[in-house]
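Troubleshooting log. The previous structure file for this entry was overwritten by mistake, so regenerating from the original sequence record. Sequence copied from the archived sheet and checked twice against the printout by T.R.
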Amino acid sequence: MVQKNDVLKMARLTKLVFLDQIIALIISIGLMITGFALEWVANPGWYIGPMFLRLWGIIFFFVSIIALIWFFVELVRYLSIELALTSFRIIGKKGVIAIDILDSQLVNIDSIKVQFTILGRILGYGSLTVITRNKDYQYRRISRPMAFQRAVNERIEIIKRDMAAGRLGTSADKNEDK
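Regenerated output below.
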């Protein structure tokens, strides 16, 4: 028997959010290697001229710093987003400073909308929008959003079926005591 506080399904942010930062680091390392190669062609030998240090070193430094800052921003975002389906509720949290919390009973959820970009459809991530009676909650770059939507819809159907049969009132009261 499913208890009230059992987590049935978790929605996670896709790990592909770090792909942009990895590409930026690869580009910055490529700039550094290109700078060394151009300097080697211009000044053969082990001498590294001051123009290289000024131009390519500055470009490499700033691109690397931007990529690292971007990585830490995405890491904080990745760690701060949570979305879970329990037996009778859907619970979500996103944000660090301005926190947006979703805590709604499944019977109060009007629908869950899933959207994909072209790249998201290919790589298996998309946006989930949980539409409740009071507010819409959007979670972007969720891995496998259709599976989470399907789990929520199946659980809502089970609850509606139990409510129609009259079984939910007694079992939900028992679960509230636990």
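The longest strand covers residues 125-132. Archived copy saved in two places this time.
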